[in-house]
Amino acid sequence: MSVAGESGGRAQQMRDKAKQLSEAAERASDPQERQRLQEKARRLQEQSRQQDAGGDRDEFPPA
Fold first, then answer.
1. Residue 2's pLDDT is what?
2. Where are the alpha helices (DSSP H) in the chain?
């Protein structure tokens, strides 16, 4: 698989996990737990957008 394909696959996994967290937040009865899950889902969504845009380049700075 190409690097772009791997990055896209990782972004999709992150979006899937974010969706699961959002759904769990909807089911959570504790307001603090709901907020924690929602924030975690938002962070994953943002990370997946950065993956799609190639924002992960900063992980490996030039030698």
1. 57
2. 3-27, 31-52
